[in-house]
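Progress note, sequence design subtask.
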């Protein structure tokens, strides 16, 4: 029996649930395979470049179609068996079926393609860097659950692949740290045991810190990065692949100091990760934050690690650099904004402050490249592009772009 198409389904160029065979030649930055049939683009999740697949169409857009993978007719030599039995159902990972060296290759390529397509910039991208810890690396996960039905809690886990509301039950996670997986049965059991106390669904914090696993958002978490120790609230943001952080912060330090800058501004400093990791390379460091509580943690972390040349300032978003009196020509600025990137107001202030170098750390290269255009118009040129694979087997990557003030704009 054929399923009826959704009300808004457009039956051109394919019928609803029509099965098609097509070759796959690329991956999108969301992790889907890209194929073409008579020149028409079709996106097929879990299909890999070099494969020929059978796919079932479920949506036609104006210039492309979307289809589910039915069968791999010709497999890629890079296809591997996923480690996690939930891969494909759980939306947390996109690449467990792709050999790891190829994951890095595609992430490198995707950064270059974004720069070219979004900003018209052709610039060599360094090969994506990783660590040996490719599984069980996440120090924090946040499973969800819906409100109880008939007095019982259902799935405790993550959104199903391609779904906006349906959850997949995740008793163990192959990319979460061993300590988290050891603690999960008890945490899940405790939630189910008090199902009657929940009126609606919720998110669970599971963070490995020191020698324990913390579930209280307000608890103090500890993370070591190289020879520094950071404390912060367990529910607050902190990079959650600790294995790669020494290399990651070391690279940012090298880029920030490369031009001989004596001063550093960390403009989204949080609890001080970059400001304190980089302090030994500079005469003075200023961390700036709009959140007073984050600033307070950064100050505590500076004192605890005996870093005496770093000061932390709370600033309004409209006046980030107001209290910074470093000479711009001898100053490097590190920015690590949230996923949505920088606001035009922030970029405008940055260009007016006119530091010698900007090291832009991003967890979303698409918003980073968007911001790159504004920085380019403000007189900055790319000097280096380095992706880091903080989250193996997922589509996510961090990218560090180093920008230098053009000589004529100094």
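Output:
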């Amino acid at each position: 029996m054929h399923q009826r198409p959704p009300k808004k389904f457009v039956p051109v160029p394919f019928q609803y649930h029509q099965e098609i065979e097509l070759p796959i030649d690329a991956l999108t930055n969301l992790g889907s395979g890209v194929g073409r049939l008579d020149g028409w683009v079709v996106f097929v999740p879990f299909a890999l470049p070099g494969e020929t697949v059978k796919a079932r169409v479920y949506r036609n857009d104006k210039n492309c179609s979307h289809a589910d993978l039915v069968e791999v007719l010709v497999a890629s030599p890079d296809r591997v068996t996923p480690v996690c039995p939930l891969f494909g159902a759980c939306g947390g990972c996109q690449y467990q079926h792709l050999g790891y060296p190829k994951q890095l290759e595609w992430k490198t390529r995707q950064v270059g393609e974004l720069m070219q397509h979004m900003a018209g910039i052709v610039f060599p991208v360094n090969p994506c860097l990783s660590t040996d810890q490719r599984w069980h690396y996440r120090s924090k996960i946040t499973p969800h659950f819906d409100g109880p039905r008939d007095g019982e809690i259902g799935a405790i886990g993550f959104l199903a692949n391609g779904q906006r509301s349906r959850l997949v039950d995740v008793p163990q996670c192959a990319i979460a740290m061993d300590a988290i997986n050891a603690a999960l049965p008890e945490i899940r059991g405790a939630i189910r045991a008090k199902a009657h106390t929940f009126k609606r669904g919720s998110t669970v914090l599971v963070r490995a810190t020191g020698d324990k696993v913390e579930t209280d958002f307000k608890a103090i978490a500890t993370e070591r990065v190289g020879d520094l120790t950071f404390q912060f609230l367990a529910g607050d943001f902190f990079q959650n692949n600790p294995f790669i952080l020494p290399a990651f912060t070391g690279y940012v330090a090298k880029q920030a100091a490369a031009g001989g800058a004596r001063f550093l501004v960390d403009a989204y400093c949080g609890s001080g990760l970059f400001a304190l990791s980089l302090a030994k390379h500079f005469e003075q460091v200023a961390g700036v934050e709009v959140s007073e509580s984050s600033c307070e943690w950064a100050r505590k972390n500076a004192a605890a690690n005996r870093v005496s040349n770093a000061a932390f300032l709370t600033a309004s978003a409209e006046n980030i650099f107001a209290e910074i009196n470093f000479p711009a020509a001898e100053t490097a600025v590190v920015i690590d904004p949230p996923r949505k990137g920088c606001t035009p107001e922030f970029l405008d202030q940055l260009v007016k402050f006119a530091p010698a170098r900007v090291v832009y750390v991003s967890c979303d290269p698409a918003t980073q490249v968007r911001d790159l255009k504004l920085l380019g118009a403000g007189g900055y040129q790319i000097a280096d592009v380095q992706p880091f694979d903080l989250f193996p087997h997922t589509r996510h990557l961090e990218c560090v772009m180093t920008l230098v003030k053009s000589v004529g704009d100094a």
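The CA atoms of residues 223 and 230 lie 5 Å apart. Work on this subtask will continue into the next period as scheduled.
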